[in-house]
Structures are given as structure tokens and as C-alpha cells.
Please model this.
Amino acid sequence: MQTTLAQEPVIALDMTARQWRVLFAAWLGWGFDVFDALLFNYVAANCIVSLMHLTPGTAATKSEVMFWTGVSSSVLLVGCAAGGILFGRISDRIGRSRTMIGTMILYAVGTASCALAPNFWVLLVCRAVSALGIGGEWAAGASMVAEVVPEKRRVQAGALLYSSAPVGLFLATFVNWVIAGVWMTGDPGTSWRWVFAFGILPAGVAILVRRGLHEPERWTSVVAPGSKAEPARFGELFNPTYLRVTISGLAMAVTAMLMWWASNAFIPVVAGGLGDRAAAAQGLAGADRQALIEGWKTMATNLFNLGGLIGTFATVPIAERYGRRTMYGVYFALSAASLFAAFGVTWPEAWRLYFYFPVGLAVFGVFGSFTYYLPELFPTRLRSTGAGFCYNSGRIIAAGGPFLVGWVASRGANALDTALAAMSWIAVIPLLGLLLLPLVVETKGRVLED
Model:
């Protein structure tokens, strides 16, 4: 089905200005989604110490930070899953663009509210509110792009859409570095509040992109109110018609989510711990020590993001030439190897940071496929519900990953070394994912179903 008028001029990649506007709006929505979702990871140490009135620098405090970082990440994932499933259904009922804009405002307000939290429990509530919008935005944006772009450009457009995730992380890294690493290095007890305050940015962006953003013609002709199409029912995902594709999407999403969150949630904490050791070895203290720690956090995260950006685009030629099943096999094999090399082998502190690049390339990069693969599995009236369920149900199961790593790390005498040992076992997850490849429904060459 053509989704744009024939007279509209083509700009690039066989797409018209309208199609590029839709892609850009969804790109902004997903980029800021990731930006807001992961701001906490950068400020976890300072935030937890401040709100729980812990003594900075002690072994007990480092264990507490590891544990509560895992808890907070798990709360976020459960909230994202609930939001994704809820707003996925709403998107199929009221439309993609309205749902996307509403969820952007919701997660922006929730994240910015964290800056005002008087204690850690209120912060968790604010994170949960934000998570509802974060989870809901993905399904609406991915479905909207898949339904608007030309069939032969769906894979490229999906990868372009997900490329905003590393960009969102780069932005979060930059905001934290400017505030905590340059502007307020001497006041870590307050700097985290300013970092969270920047979470309001997506609300303004949502208001701007709302102008000129219309529902996909594929949705309006099939599902819009007044059409003859039967409204999507959640239970349809498990009937004989769609059960196989639901299992396919869920199996890949669960594997990817588990390995991503179990490793990514602790990047700033681990990099900061390694930087703290390096600062101690150099005899640094005070603001100089904090600046080095923040610099190491920035280095590790940027390497992970850069790898993820390259890996996202690399899914396109592999998926188009060899198919989706082979693409997942390649990425899971690389993920297992890179995770074990990064955390299961002894390296000097500075060297270990550089292993975050191959980890990002594989563990982060594979997510570039979900923005085109999951929408391919379901028809228009069920697309956002199905894609949202697969992607976000993976988050429910993945919620156990950060909690388990944080709990194990907090049990050891040395929280950092214990965390590294625990994280080396994350390499088992993509190996299990390889065993699930026979469940993958191949969609190479398939036309998007109405």
C-alpha cells in the first residue's frame, strides 16, 4: 500500500519530505526516550549516597550503590514493560502520532520530577511514571515509521530510527559530564538534581514535532475509528494465527534485553569505580578525583555508544542479504565473545574501558533490528500491540538482570571486583539466545501485512 501521494517529490532513499518528517519525529522521540531512561545511570552513585544519607567512599556505601542501582534499573524495566503493553494497545486504538507525543510528555515530566525527590522512594515512584512513557513511545514510533516508509526502505528506516538511541546516550553522557564533571565537580550531592532537570527537554520537543505530524494512511484506512476492522485484542497474540510470530519476537527481545540491561545499567558505576582506583593510585583527591571519575564514565559510555551506533547500521546489510535469523545469530555470537572478554578476563583498569566498544557493537547494535523486525511480524490493526508486547515483555524478564548483578555485587567484600565477576556470566545469555534461533520467523522479503 502506498502511504504518500504520488505527486510528492522524492528527496532521498525513495522517500518523500512527509516520510522523512515522520521518521525524524520518531527519531527524536526514541532518542529522547533513551536519554531520559538512562540519566539515572550516570548519577546513581551521587544520587543514592545523597538521598539515603550514606557515607561517601566506604566499602559499605559502594555495595549499597551497586544494589540500589540494580533495583532502580529493574523498576524502570518493569514500568517500561507496563507502559509498552498499555500504550501499544492505545496506539492501535487512537493512532500512532498522538500516542507518541503523549508518551514523550509523560516520560519528560516523570524524569524531571526526579530532580525534586526528597528521598529515594519518591525518586523510584517518579522513575516508574517516566518508565510508562518510555515504554509506550517505542511501540508507537516504530509502528508509525514501518507504516509510512516505502516497503523496500523499511529496514534502512528502522535502523535509522534506532540510531537515535546511541545519540540519546551521547547527549545524556554530555549533560552529565558538563554538570557533574565540569560545572559542579565540588558538589556531587546536588549536581545529580540538575542532571535530572534536563529530562524535561523532550516535552518541549514533543510540542514542536506535533505540528504537521499526521497518522499513517495505512492505519487510518484500516484501523481508524469508523473503519470496519475489528479492534485489536490482546489475547489474539496467543491464538494459533499469531502465536508463532509472538514467540519469535519475544525470544529475540528477551535475549537482547537481558544482556543489554545486565551490562549497560552498571557502565557508569563500574567505570567510575575503575576511575576511582586510578585516581587513588595517582594520589588525586577532591574535585580533581571527581573530574577523573566523571571522565572515565564518559569514556566508557561513549565507546559503548559509538559501538552501538555502528552496530545498529550494520544490521541492515546482514538482515537484507542473509535474513533476520542469520543476523541475530551473528550478533549473539559476537555478544557472547565481547562480554566475556570485557568482564571475564583480567585487564588493567584503563584497558577494560576500551572493551566497551565491541560490547556496544554487538550488545547495543542488535537493537537496531527490532524497529523493523517486530513491526514486520504483525498486521496493521495489531502491529503496535504485538510489537509493544514483544519488546516490552522482554523488559519484564530482563528486569531480573540488573537486580541480580547488583545483589551479587553488593554481597562481596569488594563490590567492584564482585560486579565484574558477576558480569562475566552475562556472556551466557547470548549463548542461550543462539539456541532459540530455530524459533525465529524469517521475514526477509515479506511485504508489511495490512
In short: Residues 286-322 form the longest helix (37 residues).
